[in-house]
Write a structure and sequence with these properties.
Layout lengths: L11 E4 L9 E4 L10 H7 L5 E4 L3 E3 L2 E3 L3 E3 L2 E2 L1 H22 L5 E5 L1 H12 L6 E5 L17 E7 L7 H13 L3 E7 L7 H14 L1
Parallel strand pairs: 2-3, 2-8, 8-9, 9-10, 10-11
Antiparallel strand pairs: 1-3, 4-5, 6-7
């Protein structure tokens, strides 16, 4: 794995392509994860694809996150705005450094929420997204143009953290923006299940 370049702004790991040409995956961990957390998941769902995995800069009780929250499900919107901009800049720089196409974001929980924020704020940054246990990060005053961008949303039937209303609203916003949204509700809680991984792998193979 390549040594991280400090000028990119995020501690991160990069795994070069090792198979047939596939879009790179931007791996965005959940609360308490780090740049290593989703590497094995990325390799499972898109074998041989380049993997770009940054560590969130915010700490909550010592646990890395991509942006601050005020309480469970209550986000610090000013911090979210700043951190989303930083992440978009990181992706742009990393593409230049590593010679990458636009990535597909694969985010879990907090990582899925900042991926959704990227889509709603910097739509040119991503070629698509797999949003696992995402909720609506905020409602933009004007929807971006996400025409044709493929997005898979994976939610749990018994998720105690993500309200059904919030996930449905996110799917609605992305669809209204023109994205090609596939929404799957799996029999699981907030944690990921084998069905999540199988569904993501199948979707990536078929749609991306």
């Amino acid at each position: 794995m390549a040594t991280p370049r400090p000028d990119l702004g995020f501690v991160h790991r990069f795994v070069p392509a090792s198979g047939p040409a596939r879009p790179p995956l931007l791996l965005l961990h959940g609360t308490g994860g780090d740049e290593n957390d989703l590497l094995s998941l990325g390799a499972q769902i898109a074998s041989g694809a380049p993997l770009l995995s940054p560590r969130g800069k915010v700490l909550e009780s010592g646990m890395p996150r991509f942006f601050r929250r005020l309480a469970e499900g209550v986000f610090d919107l000013e911090d979210l705005k700043t951190r989303t901009s930083e992440l978009a800049e990181f992706v742009t720089h990393a593409r230049d450094v590593y010679g990458l196409q636009k990535p597909i974001a694969v985010g879990f929980s907090n990582g899925a929420n900042i991926a959704a924020s990227l889509l709603l704020t910097y739509p040119e940054t991503l070629a698509g997204a797999v949003l696992m246990r995402a909720m609506t990060p905020f409602e933009p005053p004007k929807l971006p143009d996400l025409s044709g961008i493929p997005i898979l949303m994976l939610s749990g039937t018994a998720d105690p953290i993500v309200p059904a209303q919030s996930r449905e609203r996110l799917a609605q916003l992305l669809s209204e923006a023109g994205a090609d949204v596939t929404q799957k509700i799996v029999p699981a809680g907030h944690g990921l299940s084998p069905q999540d991984l199988a569904t993501a792998a199948r979707w990536l193979a078929e749609r991306v």
